[in-house]
Write a structure and sequence with these properties.
With 372 residues, the protein is of the alpha/beta class. The protein has two domains: 173 residues, Ribonuclease H-like superfamily/Ribonuclease H (Nucleotidyltransferase, domain 5, 2-Layer Sandwich); 172 residues, no CATH class. The protein is 41% helix and 16% strand. Strands 3-2-1-4-5 form a five-stranded mixed sheet. It has a four-stranded mixed sheet with strand order 6-7-8-9. Helix 13 crosses helix 14. The protein is elongated, with a radius of gyration of 33 Å. About 3% of the residues have low confidence.
């Protein structure tokens, strides 16, 4: 309360030098766990600086990391710079921005698709407001925005040379200003996890799916491919007793193709469960397969998940209707049964397959056909 009386003693000049083609608009931003702020100075060609804008805001109730709040401060500075530059008719090429957060400076240089949603949206807004305005690092001791972000008493503000007289180097020629713009960080927060390897693998395995819309035809094509691979491997064998597969498809070839497709479906829908069962570990409680007795078993040369109900002893192979291959299988089965009801299709496919979300998917398939 004793500081309230000191507020009236703070002189605020309403004078700023005339804006010329050499006038620079220099901005600083900073944040703490309590508040974040942005400050703007008008610098003339002779090095004279005037405080023209300042804004401070309290941090939101929703907890955010300190780098995210530093980014919020940078956004506040970007909005303020665009507003003041437009009001004083200063081109953005004459604007300069400083931040004491190296993480924020690194985010501003990254492609948006590599950043998490909040960071990407904020960076996009900053770049849209002040396109091509350079961002440079400044240490906290020379950052005027550090004062309002951390809080300062009225008496201390009255005597602060940093606040009223700007950083000392700002009056020097621009070539003597701080030049550090970016820091190469090994582990930069706010970045999306790299999924390139997983997506590439899935794309290679399911490339055949984009060529065929019939599950039966897809199965036969895959059966021929597997037969060709087996015969190609046998042709390189030095064993004289090696016999090649028959030139026609048989029941075992079709079964091997079906097991291969089921394995790909399970890899897409239950990758964590497959990894756990392959290493003889327990499935997580959050898994859909937790309430089932699930094991890995080899069928036609492919290790797939088998599940057995705790009451019903029937063995089925779990799949998810969200998988594109499972959707194709249900659509083909629906056509085979002459567009019969969803419950009947589930009952028939349920003899060997446990498909999560099958009813909802079959309802969607039914809406695609006028005959249904």
């Amino acid at each position: 309360m004793s500081e309230i009386a000191s507020i009236s003693e703070i002189p605020i000049s309403s004078y700023a030098q005339a804006v010329t083609s050499d006038t620079l608009l220099c901005g600083f931003c900073d944040s703490s766990n309590d508040a974040y702020a942005a400050v703007l100075y008008l610098r003339s060609s002779d090095g004279t600086c005037n405080l023209v804008f300042c804004r401070a805001r309290v941090c939101p109730l929703k907890q955010r990391t300190l780098p995210e709040m530093e980014l919020e401060a940078a956004k506040l500075l970007a909005l303020a710079t665009a507003h003041v530059a437009q009001a004083l008719q200063i081109p953005l090429s004459n604007c300069r921005c400083w931040s004491d957060s190296m993480i924020v400076l690194a985010w501003l240089k990254k492609p948006l698709q590599k950043l998490k949603v909040f960071v990407a949206n904020t960076v996009a807004l900053i770049n849209d407001c002040i396109t091509d305005v350079p961002w440079v690092h400044v240490d906290s001791a020379n950052n005027p925005a550090d004062l309002p972000s951390r809080g300062i008493s009225a008496s201390s503000l009255l005597s602060s040379k940093l606040w009223w007289n700007r950083p000392l180097w700002l009056s020097q020629p621009e070539q003597n200003w701080p030049r550090t713009t970016q820091l190469e960080m090994e582990h930069l927060p706010g970045m999306k996890k790299d999924k390139v390897e997983t997506l590439t693998t899935i794309g290679q395995e399911f490339k055949l799916l984009t060529l065929y819309s019939d599950y039966r035809k897809l199965t036969k094509i895959l059966a021929w491919m597997l037969k060709f691979v087996r015969n190609a491997r046998k042709s390189t064998s030095t064993d004289e007793t090696t016999t090649f597969d028959s030139p026609t498809l048989c029941f075992s070839d079709i079964q091997a193709a079906k097991m291969c497709l089921i394995l790909q479906q399970q890899k897409e829908s239950f990758p964590v469960e497959i990894d756990a069962l392959s290493h003889n570990k327990q499935i997580q409680h959050s898994s859909k397969l937790w309430e089932l007795c699930s094991t890995m078993k080899c069928h036609a040369g492919f290790n797939v998940i088998e599940s057995r109900g705790r009451v019903d002893s029937r063995v089925t192979m779990p799949q998810s209707a969200k998988c594109q291959l499972t959707k194709l299988m249900l659509q083909t089965k629906h056509e085979e049964l002459n567009h019969i009801g969803a419950s009947t299709v589930i009952g028939i496919t349920g003899q060997n397959h446990l498909i999560f979300g099958a009813k909802k998917e079959l309802k969607r398939i039914q809406r695609l056909y006028t005959t249904c």
